[in-house]
Design a protein that fits this description.
This protein is an alpha+beta fold. The protein has helices at residues 55-66, 85-103, 124-137, 142-151, 204-217, 252-273, 293-304, 307-314, 320-328, 363-369, 397-404, and strands spanning 2-3, 14-19, 32-47, 69-79, 110-117, 160-168, 171-180, 193-198, 233-238, 282-290, 340-345, 348-354, 357-358, 374-380, 386-393. It is found in: Cytoplasm.
Length: 408
């Protein structure tokens, strides 16, 4: 596998564009994007588990269930088109029809992504004009990738992209993606949109099964603030233009593709965690020694979502009691006197708990370790052989500031 500096048009046959349409007056950011495949691309999709689902999610689920392949996705930021009733759904259908008309394809070959404020109707005159402007701008170059990756953001401070190349059947297959997500992020798909493109030839059912499996260990292991959104969506588009022999079973070619897709999912998930609203550092929690994979996940999520632990990470305070406490209320049985906890970062490693009690560690050294941009808590509960990793961030004053006036 080769990691490359590229975006969603790195795989053969994809073009994209991003621009400012003016979805929310008074702003200056790019707010609409589009990705198009030259040929039909098999589609896999994973969506929010929130009972309250946005209109584009309902449309996307329908398309994934009923269609083998699609050609395009159009995305807007600023307004989520959630809790907007029949009119909101009709607006999604109108978007699909507008894109289809301009690209000379069927509306059922178009999916939609929206993110932003809940409860507002889309300004369809603005959206339609944005679609008309996007189509002639579609290109396969780095600038277009950057424009598109910026155009899907809300409170994010930076775009999020990942891309790799893998060899399958003697062909170079590329997998690339972009996503947005900064707040209302919690396991079960946080308020995030993800778009992954690949030129691999792969059976749709196998692609859907694989992506949903990988989501559980990547995007569903991310938490910023404990809120699960109405709009979460990750699409994977596979157009087969690498011309590899179609992957139809779980053989060596499948494993090579799986490795690349896992990397892209995981990289994007970590970038979301590291750009949590108001955060100053990425917080990674790795739990080992659990008696099952599910319990390892539960324990790691419990620590990464603990508000007190997140605040301690912000304060560069090695408050190990908060970590042990979060493990204890997770609902998983383990022996507290066997727990070991270490903190590590680019600035060093320090063991702070051994056999359930504090070591004679240096608070100054711990503060140094916790001052890096990315910090990991390594936890071993010595109760089995299973492990899991969750990603989050620290909790800062700025998180409240951002969300206190989000609608304005």
């Amino acid at each position: 596998m080769k990691i490359i500096n590229a975006g969603v048009t790195a795989p053969k046959g994809f073009k994209c564009a991003g621009l400012r349409a003016g979805v929310k007056p008074g702003k200056t950011n790019k707010d609409m994007a589009m990705i198009v495949s030259e040929v039909p691309a098999k589609i896999a999709g994973t969506f929010t588990k929130n009972i309250v689902k946005a209109a584009p999610v309902l449309w996307g689920k329908k398309i994934v269930e009923e269609q083998e392949a699609v050609r395009a996705v159009v995305i807007n930021t600023g307004i989520a088109n959630a809790c907007t009733g029949a009119q909101g759904y009709e607006n999604v259908v109108t978007e699909a029809k507008e894109v289809a008309k301009l690209l000379d394809i069927k509306p059922e070959e178009v999916v939609v992504g929206s993110t932003g404020v809940i409860g507002q109707q889309l300004p369809m005159d603005v959206i339609k004009e944005g679609i008309k402007r996007l189509v002639p701008e579609l290109k396969a170059d780095r600038q277009s990738e950057e424009d598109a990756s910026w155009a899907i953001l809300t409170t994010d401070t930076k775009p999020k992209e990942a891309a790799v190349e893998v060899e399958i059947d003697g062909k170079t297959v590329t997998i690339a993606g972009m996503c947005k997500g900064s707040g209302m992020i919690h396991p079960n798909m946080g308020t995030m949109l993800g778009f992954i493109t690949t030129d691999a030839a792969i059976d749709k059912a196998l692609l859907l099964e694989l992506q949903r499996e990988l989501i559980e260990d990547t995007f569903n292991m991310v938490s910023v603030d404990g809120d699960t959104s109405t709009n979460d969506t990750v699409f994977v588009f596979a157009n087969g233009m690498a011309e590899n022999k179609e992957i139809t079973e779980k053989d060596a070619d499948y494993e090579a593709f799986r490795e690349g897709l896992l990397y892209v999912n995981q990289s994007l998930a970590k970038q979301i965690a590291g750009d949590g609203e108001g955060c100053t550092r990425l917080f990674e929690v790795h739990v080992a020694g659990a008696d099952s994979k599910e319990n390892a996940k539960i324990l790691s999520k419990s620590v990464v979502t603990s508000s007190l632990t997140k605040a301690a990470i912000y304060g560069k305070d090695a408050n190990w009691g908060r970590i042990l406490c979060a493990l204890g209320y997770a609902g998983v049985d383990f022996d507290p006197v066997k727990v070991d906890i270490s903190l590590k970062s680019a600035d060093g490693v320090i063991e702070i708990v051994k056999d359930g009690i504090a070591t004679d560690y240096s608070e100054d050294e711990a503060t140094k370790v916790l001052s890096a941009d990315a910090v990991t808590a390594d936890i071993d509960v010595h109760n089995g052989v299973f492990e899991a990793t969750a990603w989050g961030c620290d909790l800062t004053h700025d998180y409240v500031t951002i969300n206190a006036d989000y609608r304005s």
